[in-house]
Design brief:
Layout lengths: L3 H4 L6 E3 L2 E5 L17 E5 L1 H5 L1 H10 L4 E5 L8 H13 L4 E5 L1 H9 L5 H15 L3 E5 L12 H17 L3 E4 L1 H6 L19 E3 L11 H15 L12 H4 L10 E2 L4
Parallel strand pairs: 1-8, 3-4, 3-5, 5-6, 6-7, 7-9
Antiparallel strand pairs: 2-4
């Protein structure tokens, strides 16, 4: 196992600041009311969401989903930044869906025994409880990445906890980013974790790539995230479909595991 000082954060470069995007969505605040827009969404993500932030913002806006997109590379669910951001989003009470995209960093900490997988499970349960029935969408971790980040066993352990959380809590949805990634290897940089064309030498969290620099990988990441949101019912509560049944037909039924559509 490599020492923490060399590989603690998923982003192996200088990280500065935090990015928070606000988007109202097309027509979200018009007199057309709730029917004219999708659910209000709070996104909390790490370096992958940072790379795709412009695509996420545009995709949610086009889907008429008012959103706050908070991204900070190198931060896991257990980090003070993630906990504080989620707490602020929850206390404001205006977001019907929360999207959590930190699983890669969670796997990195699990791999180094900094955050035991049991603690990670507790943190997810606490988040679900705080959301009080509102929909939680979790993107899972890509398993096959450069070993500088984590071994496959760590990602598999994190993904197992995520799936168990979805089975136990009917308001949780899972975007199976690992499954999507397996059939689209060209979307990834040389480290097989970050999206192509990769990270700059200096990552400034408050200056993510611009819309003009977004790649196919960035746009597909945003689409996968949005499909997860779309799997939530309008009231933020899951349907009565049993998780094991929902997994059999990820396209035609409300799902806990959101698979690629093509």
């Amino acid at each position: 196992m490599k020492p923490l000082s060399a590989t603690m954060a998923i982003v192996v470069c200088l990280v500065v600041g935090t990015t928070v995007f606000q988007t109202t969505g097309s027509g979200a605040d018009s007199d057309r009311g709730r029917e004219a827009r999708g659910p209000a969404v709070a996104v909390v993500g790490d370096s992958l969401a940072w790379q795709a932030a412009a695509s996420i913002e545009a995709t949610l806006s086009n889907a008429r989903m008012p959103a706050r997109v908070s991204v900070n590379p190198g931060h896991a669910l257990s980090s003070p930044w993630a906990q504080n951001t989620l707490d602020v989003d929850e206390r404001e009470g205006k977001y019907e869906v929360t999207v959590l995209e930190t699983a890669s960093n969670d796997a990195a900490l699990v791999a180094r025994d900094i955050v035991p997988v049991t603690r990670y499970s507790q943190l997810l349960d606490q988040l679900v409880a705080a959301l009080d029935g509102r929909c939680l969408v979790i993107m899972n971790a890509k398993v096959d990445v450069d070993s500088i980040y984590y071994q496959p066993s760590a990602a598999l352990a994190v993904n197992q906890v995520i799936q168990e959380t979805a089975v136990e809590h009917p308001n949780v949805r899972v975007v199976n980013w690992n499954s999507i990634a397996q059939v689209h290897r060209s979307w990834f940089w040389g480290d097989m974790l970050h999206l192509s064309p990769g990270l700059p030498a200096k990552v400034s969290a408050d200056s993510p790539p611009k819309a003009t620099a977004q790649s196919t990988a960035d746009r597909e990441f945003a689409q996968a995230l949005t499909r997860g949101i779309n799997s939530c019912p309008d009231d933020g509560l899951a349907s009565a479909i049993h998780p094991t049944l929902a997994l059999r037909d990820p396209v035609s039924t409300p799902t806990l595991l959101v698979q690629p559509t093509s």
